[in-house]
Specification:
Number of strands of chain B: 14
Largest interface: A-B, 63 and 69 residues
Largest sheet of chain B: 6 strands, mixed
Helix content of chain B: 25-40%
Structural class of chain A: mainly alpha
Oligomer: heterodimer
Largest sheet of chain A: none
Order of helices and strands of chain B: EEEHEEHEHHHEHEHEEHEHEEEH
Distance between the termini of chain A: 67 Å
Number of helices of chain A: 24
Radius of gyration of chain A: 28 Å
Chain lengths: ~575, ~290
């Protein structure tokens, strides 16, 4: 009998775990989850109210929120490419030429990645568990507990994310495109909200609770625990009722169903539409493979006798500011064309435009339906997309040459680093501006069609000029700097998203000052721009932000290295 | 014309890829021959300004290739061993892009150059096809087309025929032979001996980061004239032959081993017949010596 540790399943599982441990994402997630637990413990709702931070009610109440707020994007990142990675590295044929079945392979891949994901997520409960031995003024604690942490974590987090992980794994494996999974990860909140709003809300409450993947509704069923006295809250015993057990069983069944579907649909061979010589499955390549007719040797002889065609003499102007500017224009044109060829654009831009304008199209725009209300609304709603698109597409633009192995061809051309960097920066900025422009145009049309008056185009233009465009410039510059500094695109995404989450959390806690709020989040009002009361202060801030953006681009230029950029270590 | 002197390169992993490489490359086609991992690509990357050497100089005309990178890139055409293109661009768009990066800004001139290049590499009919759908040979030809933009004084071609079928290889050889202009240097790095013997007027052999020979292929063949012998033997007989003379190469043929040996002074055995030496013999002889 084969030792379980030497079975093909365990080998695939173990390799997947080891591969994931070499990535930054699990560690970053664990760090973020640990930090999150610390905040819930020391600065959360239990503080100062006599609610014990290690009471069962607190633990079971916190976990679904934690599971909803922090984790879905990480689940997408980790579960997107276990199989894609093998095919990208062209190791798939080597694996499948060994006696490893598809079932074992997929199972090993899935559970290997999910194990790492769950370990990262567990940093939250482990931190809460360890914090039982610490004290802080205002934080109440009961005697040390062990089981509730891990029991509730398993029920409220692991099972919920098992479904989500199976879904992301299925999409990644069957489409062989991690970008689609990331897009779904980014769209998680709008999708789950729509699911709740348009589907679950229409069902009887019992069914709604059974089909709620993140068990957010189960907490509602327990009643408002906030009205309980601290003493009652601390002694509350959390038991799983039949509805919860049914919900979890349904989720496990759905996960199993999704994995079965993956098993049935997964093919070892490359998809028929595989794009040859494309190393990044982002761009829309040609739909067919070109082959030339076989050589006609008579023709070949004729060709050989024919004198070779002379190449025309051309003027090559490769130096000077003017030449650099022309090269920048050429690079920008291609960069922008390549950005538009990204498949994810087709989904993300319309989606971002829709979500940014949904409120102004479908609902009454508060407070008064004026242009100021409209533009303030779209400015707020589009902020998340402006941040996401700047970060994501700068990362893609800077990584593309390496992925496509065109880097050496481009780097051996007589172009400066500034042309390479600025073209990518401007292309991404242009993309963001197109998004903002579309959102603004739709808002103006919506206001006109809904008959909300007065329609003041200058109000829109002012907000764009003072707030949105400088924000886009800053975000693109910051993303460029981060990508150049960190080099790895995923590390950049994580660092950028982490920074944004940290900053927005700080702002929400009241630590909101102009100095460290480059996007002026919640620090501007449309009236400021219209009345001119705070305009000079806003103008100063914008100059400050644009200066930082300029410095960041300059620093990116300084840190950017072609392979040959290393200092020469030779004695002359 | 291209003078490489005392070039050294050690990677962070500790691999000493180039050991005091010194080489004079005259105008024309120059072949750099060596087994896999000999340091050919490292040398090519240094010449193409993509890698920094630890020590040494490389000069061409009055340009220092190590320090004057922009000037070098102006006169450089480079076809790397492993490269790709933007799959969503057509062949024509790709060449226009590289021409603009090279500094060919005049629209009319650029159009005529791109047309001529596409015709030269026989891709006129595929000019509007996306590069993502190109076959290996077509991609390689597009690669050489982009390297020819601006009539480079130094054309570096790294392992261009690896992975190509015989037809495409023949085409590529013709193309390379046609493209080099007088007073320009075409540096062809390869591990395929016939590439060098078919194309190059001069060559060097590199092994384990060192240049072990540099000469004209005709000289190499002349050096082995009347020294190379061929025979078809059984495996058992080969061991006996090995003690008498140096084995150059062997391959299976109808269950027997066909071997080539070098024996300058005498016939190694009755079963041997004298044969015309090839570059391959010279290469194996040198490699086994080193």
């Amino acid at each position: 009998m084969v030792h379980p540790f030497y079975t093909p399943f365990f080998t695939v599982f173990r390799t997947e775990v080891l591969l994931n441990l070499r990535r930054v994402a699990p560690y970053f997630m664990a760090l973020l989850c640990g930090g999150n637990a610390l905040l819930w413990w020391g600065w959360g709702p239990a503080k100062g109210r006599g609610l014990a931070a290690n009471s069962e009610a607190f633990i079971s109440g916190v976990l679904p929120i934690y599971s909803f707020m922090t984790l879905p994007l990480f689940t997408a990142v980790i579960m997107a490419d276990p199989v894609i990675r093998d095919f990208r590295a062209e190791i798939g044929p080597l694996i499948f030429s060994k006696p490893v079945g598809r079932f074992i392979y997929l199972l090993g891949k899935f559970f290997g990645s999910f194990f790492v994901l769950a370990c990262g997520q567990a940093a939250f409960v482990v931190t809460l568990f360890v914090l039982q031995w610490f004290s802080r003024p205002g934080v109440t604690q009961q005697g040390v507990k062990v089981v509730p942490y891990f029991k509730h974590f398993l029920v409220f987090v692991v099972i919920s994310h098992l479904v989500l992980a199976a879904f992301y794994f299925a999409v990644g494996t069957l489409t062989r495109n991690a970008k689609i999974v990331y897009a779904l990860g980014v769209c998680f909140y709008p999708l789950i909200m729509s699911y709740n709003l348009f589907f679950l809300n229409g069902l009887p409450s019992r069914w709604a609770r059974t089909l709620d993947p993140l068990v957010m509704r189960w907490g509602q069923k327990r009643g408002d625990v906030h009205t309980l006295s601290a003493e009652a809250f601390n002694t509350l015993v959390v038991t799983y009722d039949a509805e919860l057990i049914l919900n979890r069983a349904v989720m496990l069944l759905i996960a199993a169903g999704i994995l079965t579907l993956v098993y049935r649909r997964f093919i070892i061979a490359e998809p028929a539409q595989k794009i040859h010589f494309s190393f990044l499955n982002l761009s829309t390549a040609s739909e067919r493979i070109s082959f030339e007719p076989l050589i006609n040797w008579d023709e070949q002889d004729h060709e050989a006798r024919r004198a070779p065609l002379a190449l025309p003499t051309v003027n090559v102007d490769g130096t000077g500011v003017r030449a650099s500017f022309r090269k920048l224009i050429a690079a920008l044109a291609i960069e922008f064309r390549l950005l538009l060829a990204e498949r994810s654009i087709v989904v993300i831009i319309p989606f971002a435009v829709l979500l940014s304008t949904m409120e102004v199209i479908f609902w009454r725009v508060r407070p008064d339906g004026s242009s100021a209300s409209y533009v303030t609304n779209i400015a707020g709603n589009s902020l998340l997309f402006v941040i996401g698109i700047s970060i994501f597409y700068i990362g893609e633009a800077l990584q593309r040459d390496r992925d496509l192995k065109i880097e050496s061809l481009v780097w051996s051309q007589p172009i400066s680093n500034s042309v390479l960097l600025v073209s990518r920066f401007l292309a991404t900025l242009l993309l963001v501006c197109i998004l903002l422009g579309s959102v603004g145009l739709i808002a103006v049309l919506a206001q006109a069609l809904k008959g909300d008056r007065p329609l003041e185009l200058m109000t829109y233009l002012r907000v764009y000029f003072w707030i949105l465009i400088p924000n886009a410039i800053f975000l693109s510059a910051a993303a460029l700097f981060l990508k150049v500094l960190l080099r790895d695109r995923y590390l950049t995404y994580i660092a950028a998203i982490g920074t944004c989450i940290g900053l927005f959390y700080m702002y929400s806690q009241g630590y909101n000052r102009w100095l460290y709020n480059p996007l002026l989040f919640r620090l501007w009002k449309c009236e400021d721009l219209l009345s001119g009361n705070n305009l000079s202060q806003i103008a100063q801030h914008r100059v400050y932000v644009l200066t930082i953006a300029l410095v960041l681009v300059a620093l990116a230029h300084l840190f950017y290295q072609r392979r040959s950029g290393r200092r020469v270590r030779r004695a002359r | 014309m291209l003078a490489i002197e005392g070039l050294n390169k050690t990677y962070q992993s500790g691999v000493h890829a180039l050991k005091d490489v010194t080489l004079d490359v005259p105008p024309g086609m120059f072949g750099l021959l060596g087994p896999n991992g000999a340091g050919k690509t490292t040398l090519m990357k240094i010449l193409a300004t993509l890698l920094e050497p630890d020590s040494g100089t490389v000069r061409m005309r009055d340009t220092d290739l190590i320090t004057e990178k922009h000037r070098t890139r102006m006169m450089l055409g480079y076809l790397p061993q492993d490269f790709g293109f933007y799959p969503s661009l057509t062949a024509e768009q790709t060449l226009h892009y590289f021409a603009r990066l090279k500094g060919v800004h005049d629209r009319k001139e650029r159009h005529s150059l791109v047309n001529a290049l596409l015709e030269r590499v026989n891709l006129e009919s595929a000019r509007r096809q996306k590069v993502g759908g190109f076959s290996g040979g077509m991609r390689q030809r597009l690669g050489i087309a982009q390297a020819l933009i601006g009539k480079p004084a130094l054309l570096i071609v790294d392992e261009p025929t690896a992975g190509l079928d015989p037809e495409e290889r023949a085409r590529f050889h013709n193309l390379l032979a046609e493209t080099f202009a007088e007073e320009s240097v075409v540096l062809l790095s390869t591990h395929i001996v016939s590439d060098v013997s078919n194309l190059c007027s001069n060559m060097a052999i590199i092994r384990q980061g060192k240049i072990i020979a540099s000469c004209a292929p005709s000289y190499a063949i002349k050096e082995l004239t009347n020294s190379v012998w061929e025979a078809t033997l059984t495996r058992e007989q080969i061991d006996a032959v090995k003690s008498r003379c140096k084995l150059l190469s062997s391959h299976m043929y109808n269950g027997m081993m066909r071997i080539r040996v070098i024996s300058p002074r005498e016939r190694p055995g009755e079963e041997f017949t004298q044969t015309t030496p090839t570059i391959e013999d010279y290469y194996f002889n040198l490699v086994s010596q080193s």
